[in-house]
Amino acid sequence: MARLVALVTLILTLAAPVEAEGPQRIVSLYPGHSENIVALGAGDRLVALSRSDDDGLLPDLPRLSPKVGGEALLALAPDLVIARSLVLRLNPALEPTLAEAGIALLCLDPPLWEDFDTYLRALSTALSADADEAVGRAASLRRALADEAESRRGGRPRPRVFIEATEKGLHTCAPHSWAARLVTLVGGENIAATEGEEEEAKPLMAWGIERFLKEARLGLDIYIVQQGTMNGATVDDVRRRPWMEPFGGVKVVAVEEGLLSRPSLLGLERGGRELIDIFYPREESLP
User: Fold this and answer.
1) Average pLDDT over residues 58-74
2) What SUPFAM superfamilies has UniProt attached to this entry (predicted)?
């Protein structure tokens, strides 16, 4: 219950009531929110995104820092700003600035896999969109990805997979994380599938080389390098590591962090299909 309370934190200033059809000028300060707003059909209402948003998503819109100043933000004349709690911690002036201007602020933290439907309902309500339709779309997408993966697998063994989240200390994605659950959804077997109680609330966990080697010697098919702000390692970097020498036959691939770990409908579809292509390549793409 505590997790859900943290997940759906509504900070709303309604001095200026939102119209019945929903907010018409939205600023999104987290990429996951932006992608879900677009997926829910409200992308034309966005007037600015965060600097962390993908370059290809609504490229003509301005990109804002988490510490965006009040003057720059108010100049966009938004009627709703959607952020996450990290943004509010980085920019403590944001909430009082918006409150003084009578602009609604919605704070939603990135959801865990099992909380995604709750998150979609909260976001849909803020947009005056159909929450049941959004949740149904997510369910259909999960089923479609699982079915496609099973069809593409065609009786082949499920691949044993390791996800490198950060090179330093060799951190991996915790079994409850979005990335690990996506790997499982499309038929992968995560070799780092155990975690301690102290790690349950964290999306990443320290794994270490010795632990990796112990599990990998039992079988490893695919080594995924999650590339992003926390990990700049390349496929070549991984292959050059001395402790990877025994695993020369393992497929090492790089996947962009936003595809693997960003909770969004767009990320779910694109990331799921990317993993399916990695796990079960079509015959024409085999060497």
Assistant:
1) 95
2) Helical backbone' metal receptor (SSF53807)
For the entire predicted model, the pTM comes to 0.89
Does pLDDT of 286 surpass 60?
Answer: no
> Which of left, alpha, beta for 43 (phi over 0: left; psi -120 to 50: alpha)?
alpha
Domain ranges of the chain: 2-129, 157-285
- Quote the CA–CA distance of 23 and 49 in Å, as a whole number: 15
Chain centroid to CA 144: 19
Token readout for 115 is 């909380």
Question: In the predicted model, what is the mean pLDDT of residues 51-62?
Answer: 96
d(CA 82, CA 266) in angstroms, rounded, equals 18
State the Cα–Cα distance between residues 102 and 104, nearest whole angstrom.
Answer: 7
Is the domain defined by 2-129 classed in CATH 3.40.50.1980?
yes
Topology of the domain comprising 157-285: Rossmann fold (3.40.50)
**pLDDT per position as a tens digit, 130-151:** 999 999 999 999 999 999 999 9
Other residues' Cβ atoms within 10 Å of the Cβ of residue 113: 18
